[in-house]
Amino acid sequence: MAEDWLELEKKAREWTYEAANLVKESLANPIHIESKSNPNDLVTEVDRAIESFFFHKIQNEYPEHFFLGEEGIADELESLGGTVWIIDPIDGTMNFVHQKYNFSISVAIYHESQGMVGLVYDVMNDELFHAVRGHGAYLNNEEFLPVKERPLHESIIGLNAKWLVQEKNAYRNPLRALVRDVRSIRSYGSAALEIAYVAADRLDGYISVNLSPWDYAAGLVLLEEVGCKASTFRGEPLDFMKPSTVIVGKPQLHKEMVSSYVGEEL
Ligand code: IPD
Ligand code: CA
Ligand code: CA
Ligand code: CA
């Protein structure tokens, strides 16, 4: 059956607002926090509850759709075949825990590997970034203006400064050179939101040494609608089946950052 992507976006939006209310309500009570891969990799019962909320809604309404989410409620997927919801229940868990602010819910729907619907919702600021393939990208229902290219030395890039000082980070030196040459850097702590900011022209680019598909899937749908680019540091397409480096930007800037800074073989 051919899907109606505008209808699916409405459904995804309705559930995202519902999920956001659950997240806000959870802030009234103490939140149980655990660590995952390292002491700074946090997860809470709210992350898991929100993933479960989406998983059950989708299973009930669209039993033929697949699910890919950070907290592992669904079986692992081997491809993006069919229709797949890619969800980060809370992107920016560290902000959620420490600031109770600056985190997002990221919901994407892909069909045969193509991004059809993308929503990134900044819960506490009530900012919904959304796009449906071929229908433009919007912030709270207002269409984005076309992005403006700026030369690299006038650009502001989203990047986590921690990577500049981590000995084990092979990209430390290329990233330092980039930080030196751009106008400035910002770090908001939610990759999904930072990618949405590039599409909305609040940032010129965004860079991460390690992201998973739920961090960027929705953002990529937004970027596509405004002609921005996303790839690995080497300029290759992102592989949704494994974590990777990610570089996002306005087309000229993206090209320059890859070719002159992070694209070389290390
Ligand atoms: C994290 C955030 C953060 C980024 C990390 C992600 P999470 O996602 O997007 O900004 O730097 O790489 O893992 O764990 O809060 O969903
Ligand atoms: Ca996480
Ligand atoms: Ca995330
Ligand atoms: Ca998350």
From TrEMBL:
GO terms for biological process: inositol metabolic process; signal transduction. CDD domains: IMPase_like (cd01637). Keywords: Hydrolase, Magnesium, Metal-binding. InterPro entries: Inositol_monoP_metal-BS (IPR020583), Inositol_monophosphatase-like (IPR000760). GO terms for molecular function: inositol monophosphate 1-phosphatase activity; metal ion binding. Mg(2+) 2 binds at I90. Pfam families: Inositol_P (PF00459). Its cofactor is Mg(2+). Mg(2+) 1 binds at E70, D88, D91, D215. This is Inositol-1-monophosphatase.
